[in-house]
């Protein structure tokens, strides 16, 4: 399978971190044009990844830009104390991210919650919108009375095309043109390449939202080119294709055998020689005609989505408003 | 109390029918500049009301324009068969209304569901949006394949200012400018002057939505002047002020005594001499300091709202698309 | 109107405090057999009321027993800090109540959430059940491993007769017989005599739940006689009759005029002479044929119910388990 | 791998049909003591399966008894007309099932909706309870006035042990002892061995619900032995283990290669020789330490669950009451 095909397939993940892992798996060495740095602290892994140029972008199939990934493998355990620490970390990383990309402390923000209220794993965006603190109306109606330490924040959930008949990007564009924010922050539920990242990973990126990304079928993106202002995307994988689960697990089986000094060629036959995407194509070929290649989500999705929406809303509240203490961010959210 | 004061107070009702009743009660004879015609059939009362000129508008405190009110006193009984008949009636009246005000069969429609998802009596608009059939995306993406008998319909629920930080009218304006519909249909929950109208009355009007109307605190209207295109408002009273209940009931008590040949002056003392709005002011004066003048809604509001949202969505689907049979409109809604 | 009729009507309120106020209004002096003591602190008013004997019971139309009423007029403002203080107060008062009526620290508790999930103002009980900490299964399955400071608590929401076809008291009786708790705590939404008490008042009583009380139409009670074990009822008024609002307000109007030295006889005519229940009967007579005497609830009921359910669940968690700190009770609830 | 191990593993599926398929795959010929007959009509496949004796029970790891499985591969497409046909089929099959096992037309029924309201894929039982028509209270309170063609039906949703602290079977037992139904019908969400059966298959069985079956962790069963009356279980698979998806797909891949005349030994190596359960154990071994062996459900679960709950409720209403026409069952459900 050629590099080109690989890139074509790589687009399948919305996470830059996964795209990089896939690219590395194909090569096994650092990728020119892609810088990454990982820190771990108390069960929270933060990876800062920069795609610096076209070469890096081509290599991993992701746009030039800044990506921060916060991975918390233990997040699905429902540990309240961990959730609070993650909210604080999201707040700190998001604040640093804003600074790094040059968004000032008084820049006016429009938060956009993409997705569908009525489909639980796609309801992340609307749930965050419901929980963030909005202030724009105070700035508009009584600017003199807004306490220091707050900035203008508004928030909308534009709905999905199947319900509205309008692409969400068009709705956002109309609202941006009328309300003139300086920056858009878009929250979106994503499809992951790995079951273990579902509801445990948060990605922040300044590269916008591109056609076909996220759970819904977006045909138009939500980018700086379209909106005329910077857009920061916060994404959380909440679903995974059945085929992805199969493919990943087969790879894990091979690694497992290798790590036990097994003869993978003997055990796995020609499958062992298949490249990742070749095997994925095979898996899809088998599942597709039977209509089995569903997007699936963990059974406990109702609780997971609510927890992560609270974490993100708390993190945004604390990072957007200096008056909100980032050490105790959860208190400001419902 | 002067006519002017009366008018000032009359604005308190969002229903033209109630405004007219109030004005008549003050005068007792037909109001110049206001035409009204009422028909009843099988428990459904339809009143077509036209405010023809400034004189009529001043007299009842409502804008010049067309108003249709559908009253169904039995609607709160949960009778499925009656609900289906009401949906069919809404469809027929709405279709006739469109024709009367000159909206053509291919005019592109944007349905706007005003109100707040999370406040049950204010959730009418969003619930209708969720249940109407949208088609605009088919017209945009594959216009050749849309079956005859359909027109372009889109639908949005812009949220409320307390959640978004943006006036809903600004959001709608932005979406209208970008998506270019020919007509807006706005659905809104209203406050009634009469407990018996709550969840039993549907008003259709071509006069737009004006500041302060509906349940939420709208500061900007949603009018032809602002949007640049005609706007039809569909409103349902879902709440009533405690003070209104008291005031109305006292008036009913007086009428009750009169109808039994009682001496109302003796029984009601000076209260009997008070004009309606004077008494209302007194009631409010008593309730306000105690924080008692709440907006209230019937206990069964969850079911009522769902039923009426289905009726309106079914009625809209059948009246907007010729391909949908207005004799069996309920089948097309969830 | 005779005293007897008055008592008959007095039963209409589920709150002993209101029953006592009504009885006093009829008499104007302390009621033999009824002791009451009221304390206020920081906007929370606690009244401990004891109906000591048959004479007291007849006078106010309430069973012999202990009643504690916690009134928080500011509770509807949505103030989180006040909510936390109320939860702590509920915990303290409930703990004291248990001690006073002789419920020991290891007595096994069954919490029963009466009411209907799908009718917001009647959903209080089920919502509390969802939020209390249950421990009985740990005691049953691994008694050696339960940490000290906890007792056995279970919780059920039996549903309403319209949904189950079974009286909730029969369901509870069956569960009690099988699971053998020592005490039942039943949570129920009530109808109030006063709009200002809706969602601001919590009553704790050891007299059980009697036929006809609460929002639903209970035909069988939930009493010590039926269950064979003590039952403590926690009730919150969440609805009020339209007729009650009218009647109360008319009384307030009269008092308002008196306090301004007005001549109420002149202003209110014969109405002024009517006794409270006579007037209520008149109001009902007027409203009933029109189907207007609805049970109503404030527009914001969704949020109010959630807030109060959290307060009660937090209060119960802290008072039932010594290991949970009653100074920070809210942390243990969702 | 021995037969015994196989049986041990076979218990993992709640569907008798799947258990039989697994057993056949191990043997390849009819199983003594197990009779099965399959009919298909318009996309609905009905299999009647009888486990006649101990030999059959041991062979497939399922209790002696009657099983009817209704498979509708197209059910996830959201086709309303198909849903109505399935409801009618469920009604017919259920009516025939009742007759076959000797449940008379006036036998009193208690419907039990097992599962958890707040976990969407486990909410099937409570949703069915909410939508079935209950009549027991009419029979209890005014037996003379019940129209002919109805029988006594009650319905409860006992909740799950994590919320109540009580095993659902204990709650049901208490209610059965007190309300004395003749038959229990229990609705439960199941785990499937095959992703394609999730939300497309309905199983009816007269063998009760056994410890460990369904989604929750039941430790006590719900059987005729425990309840003293017959119990019919209606189950729908709504979740599947990630490991099951992987294992099934690998088997499908092998079959796919075989059907294309590929050399599976060459392509799959030793994996090809592994028995189904050996491979599953390997898959689990790889996934488990990483916490990846989640129970997953399709992304669209909210809609699927609602649709199937309506189908089952409609089917039950029509089969339990002669007065309800089984050709138009959907009309009686919400």
TrEMBL record, chains A, B, C, D:
GO terms for molecular function: peptidase activity. This is Germination protease. Autoproteolytically processed. The inactive tetrameric zymogen termed p46 autoprocesses to a smaller form termed p41, which is active only during spore germination. The chain crosses the membrane at residues 227-246. Belongs to the peptidase A25 family. GO terms for biological process: proteolysis. Keywords: Hydrolase, Membrane, Protease, Transmembrane, Transmembrane helix, Zymogen. The keyword Transmembrane helix applies.
């Amino acid at each position: 399978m050629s590099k080109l095909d690989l890139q074509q397939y790589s687009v399948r993940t919305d996470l830059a971190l996964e795209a990089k892992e896939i690219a590395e798996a194909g090569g096994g060495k650092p990728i020119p044009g892609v810088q990454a740095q990982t820190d771990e602290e108390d069960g929270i892994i933060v990876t800062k990844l920069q795609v610096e140029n076209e070469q890096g972008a081509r290599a991993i199939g992701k746009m030039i830009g800044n990506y921060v990934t916060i991975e918390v493998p233990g997040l699905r355990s429902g540990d309240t104390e961990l959730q609070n620490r993650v909210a604080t970390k999201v707040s700190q990383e998001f604040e640093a991210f804003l600074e790094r990309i040059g968004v000032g402390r008084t820049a006016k923000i429009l938060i956009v919650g993409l997705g569908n209220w009525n489909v639980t794993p796609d309801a992340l965006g609307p749930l965050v919108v419901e929980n963030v603190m909005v202030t724009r109306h105070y700035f508009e109606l009584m600017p003199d009375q807004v306490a220091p330490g707050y900035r203008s924040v508004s928030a909308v959930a534009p709905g999905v095309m199947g319900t509205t008949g309008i692409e969400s990007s068009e709705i956002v564009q109309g609202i941006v043109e009328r309300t003139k924010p300086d920056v858009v922050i878009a929250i979106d539920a994503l499809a992951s390449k790995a079951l273990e990242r579902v509801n445990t990973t948060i990605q922040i990126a300044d590269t916008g939202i591109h056609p076909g990304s996220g759970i819904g079928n977006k045909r138009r993106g939500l980018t700086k080119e379209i909106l005329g202002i910077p857009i920061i995307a916060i994404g959380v994988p909440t679903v995974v294709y059945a085929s992805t689960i199969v493919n990943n697990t087969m790879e894990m089986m091979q690694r497992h055998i290798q790590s036990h000094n097994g003869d993978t060629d003997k055990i796995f036959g020609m499958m062992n020689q298949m490249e990742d995407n070749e095997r994925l194509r095979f898996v899809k070929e088998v599942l597709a005609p039977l209509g089995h290649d569903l997007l699936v989500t963990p059974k406990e999705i109702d609780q997971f989505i609510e927890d992560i929406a609270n974490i993100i809303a708390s993190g945004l509240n604390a990072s957007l408003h200096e008056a909100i203490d980032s050490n105790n961010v959860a208190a400001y959210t419902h």
